Amino acid sequence: MRLGRRQFLSGALALGATQLAPIPRRAGAQPRFAASPFTLGVASGYPLPSGVVLWTRLAPAPLQPGGGMSPEVVPVEWEVASDDRMGQVVQRGTATATPEWAHSVHVEVEGLEPGRWYWYRFRAGGQVSVVGRTRTAPAGNAAVDRLRFAFASCQQYEQGYYGAYHRLLADDLDLVVFLGDYIYESSWGRDHVRKHGAPEPHTLDDYRIRHALYKTDPDLQAAHQACPWIFTWDDHEVANDYADDRSQFAHPREWFLLRRAAAYRAYYEHMPLRRQMVPMGSQMRLYHRVGFGTLVQFHMLDDRQFRSHQPCVGAGRGGSAVTDAEACSERLDPRLTMLGEVQDRWLESGLDRSAARWNVIGQQTLMAQLDSKPGAGQRFWTDGWDGYPAARRRLLDYLGARKPANPVVIGGDVHMFWVTDLKPDFDDARSPVVASEIVGTSISSQNGRKQEDVDAIVADNAHVRFGNPTRRGYVRVEVTPQRLRADLRAMRSVTQPRAEADTLASFVVEDGRAGAVRA
Ligand SMILES: [Fe+2]
To answer: Whose CB among 38, 127, 140, 409 lies 3.0–4.6 Å from 437's, allowing a Cys bridge?
Structure first.
């Protein structure tokens, strides 16, 4: 979807409703904060060999509009050190926190050394932040013998504590990859352990407060403080099951795009994102590549913003459906796209050019076909790639024909663990396995499915190697030149803070052999 000039301007004007802030009365004037403005912690992201993005947001009263800040421009000092006590400062500078961007700070540090750890902190108004730890990526041509990362998704705040983040602190990670549903717009599910305390967000202020609420969680803050993160989003950062410009209730398009613009802007303000990701009205370029030497190339996709509307929903509605295959021929329309043409080409050319041993494709949902009707006949859910089978086939045919090194797809969204073999034709036993897929469960979001029902689905889908809906958690991954190992980490509880985690199962992909095998 391309925004017309008119839609873009109306989005931009709506966002420009905040007045330009007055400049500080004296050069270098600083407000004095009675309480710490660093209530949302610090974060870093998108490591390069030469630098990384540092983030914080000034919000002495995070759940108030404006975060409790007066509408002034505030200088924020930052420093980066080569030691955890901040003794050897290697770079420092002053960023500007403005009310237009909710006093968020995004610093793109340059000129650092590749492949090493750094520490950083911020200072403003007589207050100092905690010290965060981050690292740069190895040089592009560097041989790297190991990378450890975790991937996570789906953290409905009301449904559980983020003990999974407390547990992953012990995993000695280089990176966290977040695959969507960082916030939830809606209140749902049972057995809430805490409350949003506000209705569904629609405006920029609403989304800022929702992000701030999620960011107040101490375990989430600690995980951001521990290492850099990279991201994609899914639907709940805006609204359930949206597709491009269409909401699940098929709201008027202009109205929905204004809502999306507010949500994207608040998202940018709360994440350690690169300058090239700054939203323009209702558009935001989030898909991105991050490389770790010659070992791993991450291709992070956005399958929400550019996708075709889901097929086979009733007239006057949007969103997804669960449909028997024979009842929905529209699903097979070759014009349906998941990534949009521009991103399709970007992904293919990036895979073609990648010199990495492993190509990790990070995206929001389950890519494998999943027939949820045991026995004869097939039934599909149209919000995942099963709503876009021709687009999926094009991508998997591409992987089969061009053979980029070791493609591994990671996903989230469905609040359960899945491990699958990706094949151009899932209904043909002879169709080759062209990529491995591992889908992580949710950090806290619920799944009502029973294991016995999932077992029946696994038995009916030959390319599915594992499925478990019963536990919350994350996936810990260790990559070496020889193999990729994924430990499915499952929390014993999310209604108890900081419960223990178990490894539910481990899977290994050997170099040159697609398909994850149970370790
Ligand atoms: Fe979710």
So the answer is: 409
Let me know: does 80 contact 120? Beta carbons within 8 Å. Answer: yes
At residue 44, the 3 state secondary structure works out as strand
State how far the Cα of 499 lies from the Cα of 219, in Å rounded to an integer: 12
Collect residues with CB below 5 Å from ion ligand 1: 154, 181, 445
DSSP-derived pairing of the beta strands 74-81 and 52-57 = unpaired
Here the tokens at position 177 are: 């990859």
Average pLDDT over all residues of the chain = 94
Q: List the structure tokens of 373.
A: 């009707």
Among 220, 184, 215, smallest CA distance to 200 is for 184
- Tell me how far the alpha carbon of residue 310 lies from the centroid of ligand 1, in angstroms: 17
Whether 127 and 38 have beta carbons less than 8 Å apart is answered as yes
Give the type of residue at 81: A
**In sequence order, what DSSP letters do the residues of 438-496 get, joined into one string?**
EE---SS------HHHHHHHHHH-TTEEEEE-S--EEEEEEE-SSEEEEEEEEES-SSS
Eight-state DSSP code of residue 81: E
Q: How many Cβ atoms are within 10 Å of 191's Cβ, its own excluded?
A: 10
Q: In sequence order, which ranges of 328-438 are alpha helices (DSSP H)? A: 341-353, 389-402
Among candidate residues 345, 315, 347, the one with its CA nearest the CA of residue 330: 315
Cα(1)–Cα(244) distance, integer angstroms = 7
Distance 416 CA to ligand 1 centre (A): 10
Contact between 404 and 473 under an 8 Å Cβ cutoff? The reply is no
**Cα 204 to averaged position of ligand 1 atoms, centre (Å):** 22
- pLDDT means per 10 residues, the chain with 519 residues, are 44 46 54 92 98 98 96 97 98 97 98 98 97 98 97 98 98 98 97 98 98 98 98 98 97 97 98 98 98 98 98 92 96 98 98 98 98 95 98 98 98 98 97 98 97 97 98 98 98 97 98 98
Confidence (pTM)? 0.95
Three-state DSSP class for residue 349: helix
Cα–ligand 1 centroid distance for 113 (angstroms): 37
pLDDT at position 29: 62
Whole-number Å distance, alpha carbon 414 to ligand 1 midpoint, is 6
5's CB contacts (< 8 A; 6+ apart) are none
Residue 435 phi/psi, 5-degree rounding, is -160, 160
State the distance from the centre of ligand 1 to the C-alpha of 153, rounded, in angstroms. 7
